[in-house]
Amino acid sequence: MDLVTVRSLFTVLIFAVFIGIVIWAWSKRQKNRFDEAAQLPFEDEELSERSAKAADKE
Question: What pTM was computed for the model?
């Protein structure tokens, strides 16, 4: 095997890994998990607002 063949096989391997990650990320089983993760920054804002309101009442 020469260097060109090794590089070609490595490129195909990396491409296959990339396709696997894309399929995993777009699978329906992961949708709920990613939707929850997408809402985390907004939950922090709600928590901050609740804390600020509680501090104002005191």
Answer: 0.58
Going residue by residue through the chain (58 aa), what tens digit of pLDDT does each one get? 899 999 999 999 999 999 999 999 999 888 899 999 888 888 877 666 666 666 666 6
Q: Of 54, 16, 8, which Cα lies nearest the Cα of 24?
A: 16
Alpha-carbon span 31 to 8, nearest angstrom? 34
- Domain range annotation of the chain: 25-58
Q: Cα 35 to the chain's mean position, in Å?
A: 10
Tell me how far apart the alpha carbons of residues 39 and 36 are, in angstroms, rounded to a whole number: 5
